[in-house]
Amino acid sequence: MKKQQLEKITPRDKNFSQWYTDVVLNAKLVEYGPVKGTIIFRPYGYAIWENIQKILDLEFKKIGVENVYFPLLIPESLFNKEKSHIEGFAPEMATVTQVGDKILEEKLFIRPTSEVLMANFFEKEVKSYRDLPLLYNQWNNVMRWEKTTRPFLRTSEFLWQEGHTIHNNQEEAKKLTLKILEIYSNFANDVLMIPVINGQKTEHEKFAGAQETYTIESLMHDGQALQAGTSHYFGNNFSKVYDIKFQNNEGKWEYAYSTSWGVSTRLIGAIIMSHSDDSGLVLPSKVSPIQVQIINVQNTDQIQDVSTKLQQELDQYRINIDQSDKSFGFKISEAEIKGIPVRIEVGPRDLENGQVTISRRDTKEKILVKLDQVKTTVEAMIKAYDQNIYQIALDNREQRTSHAETIEEYQKILDTNQGLVLVPFCGEIACEEDVKKKTSTNSRCIPFGVEQTKGKCFNCQKDSTLRVYFARAY
Amino acid sequence: MKKQQLEKITPRDKNFSQWYTDVVLNAKLVEYGPVKGTIIFRPYGYAIWENIQKILDLEFKKIGVENVYFPLLIPESLFNKEKSHIEGFAPEMATVTQVGDKILEEKLFIRPTSEVLMANFFEKEVKSYRDLPLLYNQWNNVMRWEKTTRPFLRTSEFLWQEGHTIHNNQEEAKKLTLKILEIYSNFANDVLMIPVINGQKTEHEKFAGAQETYTIESLMHDGQALQAGTSHYFGNNFSKVYDIKFQNNEGKWEYAYSTSWGVSTRLIGAIIMSHSDDSGLVLPSKVSPIQVQIINVQNTDQIQDVSTKLQQELDQYRINIDQSDKSFGFKISEAEIKGIPVRIEVGPRDLENGQVTISRRDTKEKILVKLDQVKTTVEAMIKAYDQNIYQIALDNREQRTSHAETIEEYQKILDTNQGLVLVPFCGEIACEEDVKKKTSTNSRCIPFGVEQTKGKCFNCQKDSTLRVYFARAY
């Protein structure tokens, strides 16, 4: 019978990159698309994204953000107004030059992000301070051409949300930028169970056109960092270029202040590389498409009755009975590969004692539980499960966090215990460029809550005032 | 103060097309985008689409449909395999030819629809009859270049859902095609309150590559028809071209059977042209972003207390208190333009008698209601409101439905009482082409539940076995 045999997954410690690909494909999250750099989200992969969307969307709406949809295509002339923005994106932009056989008069770019379209709209829309703020968000596809493909991490087309807000004063815009960072950070820590460090990007790493970029940074199991979400404060950079002015309450014209912020399907990559293991995915319960999987050892009426009752009793969860005609062993493997947090096995021998077997995906611990204890057991288990996978990721990060005072020390750490390295840093673009050339790594963030002591830059030895995390990153 | 004055809406009977544009722009549903043919969905317009999505998505999931996301771009070589499909879309396809400065080796089309991408995936995925059916859907953007722009009705980029399913037998595929039509039809009738006619498309009007196309057809207030949703049965057309085969339970290889189906943001156009009036939008309650709008006549503590309590009491609805500093009259106009079904005005004089004023958007009827009767009144009013707007649309359709036996009779009706015209029709492509040339109209559907009597074709006078609705259409 086809596909009853699951493919082998390369051990994580043997080849992390191959392990990642094996997990992604075997758990049927995605398939490669026909155009290089594109992926197809299969149902199981897309369902994770839908859960992410639902939870985040609610958080955005709570603070007054409204969803919109702006067009896919940006005229070349409009895009080219903002120079630092173009420089950042130009080489990656897919360009529409014709429709049918007809060559277009102006080239159209597939959006790599939508600041420019939003700015163009705001310019027409905003007249008075009373019109502000506007807090917009969209869930959409964007395109940034990539030479290599890694599902979720590096794809030419990806899905994300991009928030764009515009304000009549600087303080409110800055506050919003940081409020979003807080939403992202809470979401990563409490929903995805990925511990993140909140901080600010250096000049070298900040977003094209932004005054300040804030980030949540996570550390993957292999010690490489991953930027999990960013929030940008533009000041009035975009407003000046796109002429977005409002009349203040004294009737004078001022430039408006804007922000943008986004998380993408990269988060699914971060989930995988934070939590999963040699048996496949380990999904945080809050975004797992299936939270509890019931598997019947045999298909007798009695067993089916019990599992149906359990399904009803546990209907607060996304719960599923595997009704397929696959073998019992196959079903177990599949539930493991898919990273389903809790599995209930209903079998004839256990039922004789009024029991079922419940097991956790993370620790693989199995326990026999009386039928009337299933609900409380599952509830407790899911909580413990989420806490445990968070703790494992946190322990990994802590073991892999170190500090260095010189570039030599830093390079040594990269070779021995790859992870986050806190260094004194001058903050200059040229110096960071130099570090990048020497080590193929860059700064991750100037972390919040870490004392910014004076010292000598770890690379150029100039006076430094910053303490910055550097790391190899995805 | 800016925008306290709402723009005038052209009367519907004076100039339907201008009325439509005025309503769409004044209700702040959309704005035009910088690329011709594109629109920006503002928050209020997008919120209607989100409500449509939520309700339909649930219906799809109930029958086992799973959401996926396939790439935006289709390689030219892949698209060109299916000839009838190409012919249908080639002149409308936006084409990516370069990335940055680099010319691509192969042209890439922005998807006008995704049959080809799905087929390409199914070809690799499907091996055994046990793998089937696969029931996929995606909510996404597609592009079909248009020369003219009419928000929601004719735009180069639009949002939709496209379902794609593949089956191991013909009967199941056909049944699914019709099940989807039923979901669409119930959704139009019961949620959007738009009466629709279910039927099959003629050979001339069926979808590029399909064996059979089914449709729900609606009639707008001005007597023009609008296709509100379609469901296509492909037989094994696509499977043969893209080589999608499965092994049946006897181990023999067979071609699979496929379907596709979609509704788009056109539905918002249909809502507007079915229900709205000279004061602006009239939205069906189930998709209205705000169902109940509370407006305080003054901002005293007592009034604010009452409206806050009412908001809590009516929290089963999407309910909103207009807290802006706009004038009372302006707030009333705005609630009308936005088509909010029910409005509650809380004022000092009414409150002296323990009352508030409740009014309906459709009939503009206003009644004084005791505070303890508000909840039951609103519940009954929303039901009556939805029934009434359905009935008005149905009456309009019935008054505009006629029949003709000859092309002359048909042409006369088009000039006098534009609407749906049932005619005897031969069903031949050439004949329909001829009707189209003569009248700029085409067939809408071969309706279900209408007796298909023999006769002479209204145009070519050949023997006919079909009774078909013809109409001018959007």
UniProtKB/TrEMBL annotation, chains A, B:
| Molecular function GO terms recorded | ATP binding; proline-tRNA ligase activity
> Which GO BP terms sit in this record?
prolyl-tRNA aminoacylation
Swiss-Prot/TrEMBL keywords: Aminoacyl-tRNA synthetase, ATP-binding, Cytoplasm, Ligase, Nucleotide-binding, Protein biosynthesis
Q: State which residue ranges cross the membrane.
A: none
Q: Is Protein biosynthesis one of the keywords?
A: yes
What EC number(s) is this enzyme filed under? 6.1.1.15
Q: Which GO cellular component terms are attached?
A: aminoacyl-tRNA synthetase multienzyme complex; cytoplasm
Q: Which residues form the Aminoacyl-transfer RNA synthetases class-II family profile domain?
A: 37-284
Reaction it catalyzes? tRNA(Pro) + L-proline + ATP = L-prolyl-tRNA(Pro) + AMP + diphosphate
Location of the protein in the cell: Cytoplasm
Question: How does the entry describe the domains?
Answer: Consists of three domains: the N-terminal catalytic domain, the anticodon-binding domain and the C-terminal extension.
Q: How does it assemble?
A: Homodimer.
What's the protein called, per UniProt? Proline--tRNA ligase
Q: Which organism was this protein described from? A: Williamsoniiplasma luminosum
